[in-house]
């Protein structure tokens, strides 16, 4: 039987012996006659040979196994260490080859050398290769539940840090710089590779215990003394920009302090930080909704209202302002030119961010939580040596999440900080729990990492030993100050007349099913009605036929389009969204009938 051969899904010919052909092909690739990125495999469902050369396939390296033995030997590794050979030499010699997911289908890959059997074709370089770059930075991650690993990775990307050494010259939006970033005590092998970019948190002393209930539901308690000494202190930057636009007819915006005669003038107070040139002064403090750059736009000729014609054409204020809740010191002002050749002003605001209630923190094991309480150092528990924890973490967060890696990092961090060394927490290959326990014991501590702590409220010993150690904590970019928002009245959407959504649009707070249940459970029915009355409207319903009645304000009468003027037309208070639904149904040719039941 002959087998069809395809290159990138294009038929090229037949071969008699598919296996022999594939073997010869691979042999030539290992010798360098065929490029290393060309893959070949036998498609068992279609009984054809496929050769793949296209870009976009993901290749990964594997050690070639021949006659039950991996081609990579100890000699190779020694030579690599001494720098006598390079990775590329291993590729050239056919010891390591790159396979894509399709070719992998035909292979039999062993994870460890001792797993190699007769039919094994390749050996994995290391069990660590299943981790991504970010995941490989989590210490003892092989002890964590896999879903927690994915969650542990995200905080590392959101952590406050020094993301770039030239952050002073950059105009990024929404950036936080940590005052005192540290390297972690417990590290993995990949830390050495990404060392320059991996000071994203601080090593803190954590006690795993409950304290007065303020660390309920993943919340953490922080020591005020630590915060005062600069723990997790950071600076927040936000950038703004405005252009001096040109319009048709030679008209142009003007960057200046607007005078009260312009349309949409904001009041003298809002312009108080502007210098003569209409641009805010460096190092002045700007409050929310104050002007950063004053700009006047020429009157627009399209969309004129009768009012504007009557009052004459006026210039319009189109200044750049801070948003609601946005404040800070002016850190930098740059006057430059945009791509279109217009004058461009860029402003950077700086705001000091000291940890406050509601700010988000996380360890690298997917255990995130908000700051629930800031406690004076005198009200924090202490150990017999006088050590006061920086953070109190609830033990209730451990059993359900199965983050054993977190407990191990606490232990390893304790050993590391007591012994003045870094601990290797590389998954599978790092320091073992037994070794760490032994070392802790030799340092004069209990081997399980627990200690006697004293109750700050009574001065007594806690009856149980408290697990306390050092761990790498991250401050995440979600801060209470950026999210705080409330509203009494404000803008509504045009279509549904319901309040707008989102902080930037001064939106209403969402009150949905679960919140509804809470009020219902308390029997607060009138309050509940009020909650849903944000788009109240009155409609008229004909009780005879159930259709919407027409309110004629000009002739001052109400009538049913079907039954005409009748006595039985009632006023009903409904939400405007419901009225909209009725009207949309009518527009579809559906006749909604309302059956009124109860009146009061
Ligand atoms: Zn009717």
TrEMBL record:
EC number: 2.7.7.6
Domain RNA polymerase Rpb2: 6-66, 87-119, 507-595
Protein's GO biological process: DNA-templated transcription
GO-annotated cellular components: DNA-directed RNA polymerase complex
Keywords assigned by UniProt, alphabetized: DNA-directed RNA polymerase, Metal-binding, Nucleotidyltransferase, Transcription, Transferase, Zinc
Enzyme class: transferase
Pfam families reported in the protein's UniProt record: RNA_pol_Rpb2_4, RNA_pol_Rpb2_5, RNA_pol_Rpb2_6, RNA_pol_Rpb2_7
A GO term for molecular function: ribonucleoside binding
Keyword Ribonucleoprotein annotated: no
Sequence ranges assigned to domain DNA-directed RNA polymerase subunit 2 hybrid-binding in this UniProt record: 135-505
Family the entry assigns: Belongs to the RNA polymerase beta chain family.
Protein name: DNA-directed RNA polymerase
Organism encoding this protein: Nanobsidianus stetteri
């Amino acid at each position: 039987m002959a087998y069809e051969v395809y290159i990138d899904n294009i038929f090229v010919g037949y071969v008699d012996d598919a296996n022999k052909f594939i073997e010869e092909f691979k042999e030539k690739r290992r010798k360098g006659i065929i490029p290393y990125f060309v893959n070949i495999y036998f498609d068992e469902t279609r009984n054809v040979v496929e050769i793949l050369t296209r870009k976009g396939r993901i290749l990964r390296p594997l050690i070639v196994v021949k006659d039950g033995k991996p081609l990579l030997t100890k000699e190779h590794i020694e030579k690599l260490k001494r720098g006598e050979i390079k990775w590329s030499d291993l590729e050239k010699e056919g010891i390591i080859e790159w396979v894509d997911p399709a070719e992998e289908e035909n292979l039999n890959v062993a994870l460890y050398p001792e797993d190699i059997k007769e039919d094994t074709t390749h050996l994995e370089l290391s069990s660590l290769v299943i981790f991504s770059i970010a995941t490989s930075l989590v210490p003892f991650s092989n002890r964590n539940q896999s879903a927690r690993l994915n969650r542990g990775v995200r905080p590392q990307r959101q952590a406050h840090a020094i993301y770039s050494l030239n952050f002073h010259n950059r105009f990024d939006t929404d950036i936080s710089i940590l005052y005192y970033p540290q390297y972690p005590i417990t590290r993995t092998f990949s830390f050495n590779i990404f060392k320059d970019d991996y000071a994203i948190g601080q090593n803190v002393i954590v006690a795993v215990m409950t304290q007065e209930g303020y660390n309920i539901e993943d919340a953490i308690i922080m020591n005020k003394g630590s915060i005062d000494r600069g723990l997790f202190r950071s600076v927040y930057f936000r950038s703004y920009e405005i252009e001096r636009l040109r319009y048709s007819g030679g008209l142009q915006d003007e960057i200046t302090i607007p005078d009260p005669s312009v349309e949409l003038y904001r009041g003298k107070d809002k312009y108080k930080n502007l210098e003569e040139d209409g641009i805010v002064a460096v190092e002045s403090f700007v409050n929310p909704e104050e002007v950063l750059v004053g700009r006047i736009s020429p009157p627009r000729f399209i969309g004129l209202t009768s009012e504007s014609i009557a009052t004459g054409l006026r210039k319009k204020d189109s200044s750049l302002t801070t948003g609601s809740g946005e404040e800070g010191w002016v850190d930098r002002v740059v006057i430059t030119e945009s791509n279109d050749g217009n004058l461009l002003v860029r402003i950077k605001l700086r705001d000091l961010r000291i940890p406050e209630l509601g700010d988000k923190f996380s360890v690298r094991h997917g255990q995130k939580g908000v700051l629930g309480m800031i406690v004076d150092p005198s009200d924090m528990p202490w150990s017999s040596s006088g050590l006061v924890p920086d953070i109190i973490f609830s033990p209730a967060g451990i059993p359900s999440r199965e983050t054993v890696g977190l407990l191990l990092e606490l232990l390893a961090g304790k050993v590391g900080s007591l012994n003045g060394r870094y601990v290797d927490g590389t998954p599978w290959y790092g320091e073992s729990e037994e070794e760490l326990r032994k070392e802790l014991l030799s340092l004069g501590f209990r081997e399980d990492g627990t200690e006697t702590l004293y109750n700050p409220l009574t001065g007594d010993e806690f009856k149980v030993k408290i697990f306390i150690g050092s761990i790498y904590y991250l401050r995440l970019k979600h801060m209470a100050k950026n999210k705080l928002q409330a509203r009494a009245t404000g803008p509504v959407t045009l279509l549904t007349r319901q309040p707008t959504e989102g902080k930037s649009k001064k939106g209403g707070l969402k009150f949905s099913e679960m919140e509804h249940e809470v009020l219902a459970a308390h029997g607060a029915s009138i309050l509940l009605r009020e909650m849903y009355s944000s788009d109240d409207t009155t409609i008229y319903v004909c009780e005879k036929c159930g259709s919407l009645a027409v309110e004629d304000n000009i002739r001052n009468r109400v009538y049913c389009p079907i039954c005409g003027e009748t006595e039985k037309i009632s006023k009903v208070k409904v939400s405007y969204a419901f009225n909209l639904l009725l009207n949309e149904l009518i527009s579809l040719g559906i006749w909604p009938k309302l059956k009124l039941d109860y009146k009061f």
